[in-house]
Amino acid sequence: MTSDAPRPPPRRRFFGAFGQRELKGLFWQALVVGIAVAVIVFLWSNTVTNLSARRITTGFAFLGREAGMPIADSLLAYNPRDSYLWAFVVGIANTLRVAVIGVVLATILGTVIGISRLSANWLLSRLAAVYVETLRDIPLLLQLLFWYVLMQALPAARAAWRPIEGVFLSNRGLILPAIPIGTPQLCVLGTAVLGLVVFYVIQRRLIAQQMRDGKPRPAWPFGLGLLVVLPAAVSVLLGVPWTVEWPQLRGFNFVGGLTLAPEYFALLIALVTYTSAFIAEIVRSGIQSVPRGQWDAANALGLRRSFMLRQIILPQALRVIVPPMTSQYLNLTKNSSLAVAIGYQDVVSIANTTLNQTGQAIEAIALIMAVFLTISLGISFFMNWYNSRIALVER
Amino acid sequence: MTAIADIPEAPRAARRPQIGNPVLRWLRTNLFSSIPNGILSVVLLAVLAKGLFSFAQWGIANAVWLTPANDSSACRAVRGVGACWAIIPEKYRFILFGTYPFDEQWRPALAVLLFIALFYLSTRRALWRRELAYLWIGALALISMLMWGGILGLSFVSQDRWGGLPVTLILATFGLAFGFPLGILVALGRRSKLPAIRSLSVLYVELIRGVPLVSLLFMASVMFPLFMPNGFNIDKLLRAQVAIILFAGAYLAEVIRGGLQAVPRGQYEAADALGLSYWRKNRLIVLPQAIRHVIPPLVNTFIAFFKDTSLVLIIGIFDLLTTAKTAIIDPAWQQFSVEVYIFVAAIYFVFCFAMSRYSRSLEATSGR
User: Fold this and answer.
1) For the segment B342-351, what is each residue's pLDDT rounded down to a tens digit?
2) For A46-49, which contacts have Cβ atoms below 8 Å and span 24 or more sequence positions?
3) In a mutagenesis test of the B interface, which of A142, A281, A337, A344 is the best target, namely the one with the most B β-carbons within 10 Å?
4) Which residue among A2, A63, A188, B366 is the one 20 to 30 A from A108 at the CA level?
5) Which residues in chain A have Cβ-Cβ distances shorter than 8 Å to B207?
């Protein structure tokens, strides 16, 4: 394919080394940034005008004022005379209380259901599939309202259900027997946490030694000593009372024990069941991604089932499971903001009340966003760190 | 834990000699392959039977299906032991269409049918052509005309009287119709070589994805009036719609970015070698391949998004869930919210289940 037509001369560059491409790039960037800045300036100036017209002062000074809002169910001590700042802290604690416990329970339930979907038992796998399909295809908010209605329809405190002795389920929520935690109990728990840290260091040492000479060194004696014997010894030495407080019905309400308010309980159930359906699918696809040959090889070696799962299948499945799991944890945390629909006072609900009381819309919403961005970044930072540890190291 | 142990059991069980009664054989391989499995099956069967029996007793045997208009006494008589399905014929018009003028409710009903037809046609692969886009534009215009009215002898109905299923479908469909192109632009921006455009796109996606939708909706309902010049006020529904579009755009951008990453470098280089401009390269070569890669995750995002439109309940927009919640404020029917929620859940389920089935069939036929 030869052509006699003369080739056009190369385009002249007007700006020396600065080519057409760079110029074009600069133009587009300037245009987009210019539009973004113009929009922000436009919104900002409108907002300033509107705020001064409505006599709303900006800034976070209102945080020091007395909040005056009641918070029914809180982890931290709170009084309506406390400041807005403290109300926000209480709200954040309430959000975390739902999110952390929700993540743990949803992971457990989701894993069990995901594995059940793969079971050879036809009935079990069908039931798990129906669970997943149903919960995934109904909006979470609808499920939340449904659970809340069911909680309210429970019998009154006097006629509370007692599924097990000491556990009451009524329209006051779920009441469980509990061990009151004071300073002596915290000492014992602190010892156990310390023991866990030391155990982790020792275990890493042992693995490093095994890597050098190939001799397996069992870590469990250290685990037993540090996590069971040591805390138990401290408990006995200090004479810590581990008395269980049994809830009792007095008059129209319960005294003692641990009360999970209906709002909290409904929110927790909805978040856990909904998220577990998604986690189940992630676990299932993770396990299915492990090639059949790995199962066969492990079987051929005559390994025990538990060893095979723990050492061969799960480490490979986790590589597929961890990244999508991270987004499920983030989703659960963000979805806890639906609490506002049933009146559980999480950080969003408290910010909303603040907004209505003070008119500080920008600050209140900025606070919500800051809280969730921090939590999101925290979770994804941790999960990315964990992911990079378990990721396949290839050349 | 038996469940874990059962996984590798399946192929072995299937290899058993094919003798005996087929029903017994099926039972044996699927329910009673081992002793723990048999025990599990029996326990599950018992629980299932008990559950189904009590549900049938509540939902069918003891249920009240019809009552005279506005009279819930029959329902209250069976409260606690039977369902009150009579609330559905009593309230379904309000649940489906909200406060839309009663005599004009054929218009939102027709709009809903148009939406369903539009979705159905969009799932036909044979119709994935340019004409489909025109069809979408035409149908959405027709739906707006039906809902608003004001021309062709249709009386005008203002937006604050809209409600129920059409509002849910409008929020979801317009959210996608505008969020999709926005997502494409942002995804391209995130992969752009120009630092300013790239960082703006990253900032947008991370900010929107990092916060709950509820806070964006609050922003739309409370802060938007502050942002706009004095006297300029747009409707609450439109403000929520804008928030939903921005939200959808950020999520879709991430899905599309995944697809862009899956397009081999050679395709970009070939397009450059042909001397195509940036936009022509993306429109003709890169995007069609990228989007084809991510159709199943796109459908899944659509499902998530369809469900999430129900959050507008929190800022008081009358979508399907809000009308359901409002329908049971009526003191006579207050106690029968479970029945209404089941009815609405069934509607959501039908839409989402159809989409998820479709996504499954796409995954199966995409040749992987």
Assistant:
1) 999 999 999 9
2) A46/B226, A46/B227, A46/B228, A46/B229, A46/B230, A47/A362, A47/B226, A47/B227, A49/B229, A49/B230
3) A142
4) A188
5) 369, 373
